[in-house]
């Protein structure tokens, strides 16, 4: 039998990506325990997809090191988030004072974000990732989804600097201004966060995997080309579930301004739930063994703030605790995922 195509899908969520890091760190530790003490998670997936903060994480996991292997461990990714989160997301007192509630300008300056992305990724090109990727964004000029694929970057004009890809996928409206970037062939794009249409990019990842000749790209004849759902092991991770109720009384006569924040919250969660629904139904159509190859991991947010830019020391602590509580309750499932990843290596 052919090996499974191992797909990792990472939701958006700003600084809440710390939760994702904690979960991935445990899976990586189990792989190190079962397979190799120096193993890095990026080497145990065949395709990594991400939106917004998930796109940044995907780029870190697929950063090339020696001999075409992943350079960074999940712990190093977590360190990057904890170290740079405050610099990227924090807004000075004067910016707050001059820009109350972000009504006149974007909430966060792009300068800090772009500086950190340049420090981490330098002139790394999309085509140089260790494995295929799919990172989402949305083109507000041509009004269509824009997907960054390292597979496509190798065979077309769609190659970009990774720092520009990360800038585009993290350009969340009201947080960062749109990203104006160019491909390495000079084509210009005006892009915003892919989370506006695919905050959970797992279904996009499935569609991307269907068109890839994995046996050639991975130099492994046991990997299937143009895989079907039956050939995929799919792990999808969210950044914390926030199901805040909205009462009829509160919104009975609500105007446009009062609806803005709740509507964004509802759209993001509804998108993720809809993608999960479709994938569940797809996997339920398979045989008993293969239907167990889809994992949707979404912790309850607990005491952590649902805000994507809350980088207080207390909230970062609570985000880590949220991840740890989820890991503690799901050790068996996460270890099972690790073993399946190793089995299909």
UniProtKB/TrEMBL annotation:
Q: Which UniProt keywords apply?
A: Hydrolase, Lipid degradation, Lipid metabolism
Q: Which family does it belong to?
A: Belongs to the patatin family.
User: Which positions does the motif DGA/G occupy?
Assistant: 193-195
Lipid metabolism among the record's keywords? Answer: yes
The record ties this protein, via Pfam families, to: Patatin (PF01734)
PANTHER family in the record, alphabetically?
XYLOSE ISOMERASE
Domain of life, per the record? Bacteria
Instruction: Show the GO MF annotations.
Output: monoacylglycerol lipase activity; phospholipase activity
PNPLA domain mapped to chain residues:
8-206
An example GO BP is: lipid catabolic process
Report the Gene3D superfamilies cross-referenced here.
Cytosolic phospholipase A2 catalytic domain (3.40.1090.10)
Tell me which PROSITE patterns the record gives: PNPLA
| Name by which UniProt lists this protein | Patatin-like phospholipase family protein
Residues forming the motif GXSXG are: 50-54
Read off the InterPro entries from this record. Answer: Acyl_Trfase/lysoPLipase (IPR016035), PNPLA_dom (IPR002641)
Q: Which residues form the active site?
A: 52, 193
- UniProt-listed SUPFAM superfamilies: FabD/lysophospholipase-like
Q: Where is this motif: GXGXXG?
A: 12-17
């Amino acid at each position: 039998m052919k090996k499974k195509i191992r797909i990792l899908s990472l939701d958006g969520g700003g600084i809440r990506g710390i939760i994702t890091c904690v979960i991935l760190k445990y899976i990586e530790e189990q792989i190190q325990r079962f397979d190799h003490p120096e193993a890095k998670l990026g080497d145990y997936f065949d395709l990594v997809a991400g939106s917004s903060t998930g796109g940044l994480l995907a780029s870190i996991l697929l950063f090339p090191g020696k001999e075409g292997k992943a350079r960074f461990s999940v712990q190093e990714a977590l360190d990057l988030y904890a170290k740079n989160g405050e610099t990227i997301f924090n807004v000075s007192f004067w910016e707050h004072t001059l820009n109350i509630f972000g009504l006149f300008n974007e909430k966060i300056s792009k300068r800090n974000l772009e500086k950190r992305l340049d420090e981490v990724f330098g002139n790394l090109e999309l085509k140089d990732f260790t494995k295929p990727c799919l990172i989402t964004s949305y083109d507000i000029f041509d009004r269509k989804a824009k997907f960054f694929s390292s597979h496509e970057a190798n065979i077309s004009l769609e190659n970009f600097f990774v720092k520009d890809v990360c800038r585009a996928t993290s350009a969340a409206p009201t947080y960062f201004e749109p990203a104006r970037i160019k491909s390495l062939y000079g084509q210009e794009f005006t892009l915003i966060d892919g989370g506006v249409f695919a905050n959970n990019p797992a279904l996009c990842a499935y569609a991307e995997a269907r068109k890839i000749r994995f046996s050639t790209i991975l130099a492994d004849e046991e990997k299937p080309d143009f895989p079907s759902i039956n050939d995929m092991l799919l792990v999808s991770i969210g950044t914390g579930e926030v199901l805040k109720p909205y009462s009829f009384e509160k919104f009975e006569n609500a105007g446009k301004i009062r609806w803005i924040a709740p509507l964004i919250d509802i759209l993001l969660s509804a998108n993720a739930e809809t993608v999960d629904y479709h994938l569940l139904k797809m996997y339920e159509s398979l045989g008993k063994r293969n239907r167990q190859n889809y994992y949707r991991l979404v912790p309850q947010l607990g005491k952590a703030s649902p805000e994507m830019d809350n980088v207080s020391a207390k909230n970062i602590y609570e985000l880590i605790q949220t991840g740890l509580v989820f890991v503690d309750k799901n050790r068996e499932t996460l270890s099972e995922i690790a073993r399946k990843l190793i089995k299909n290596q």
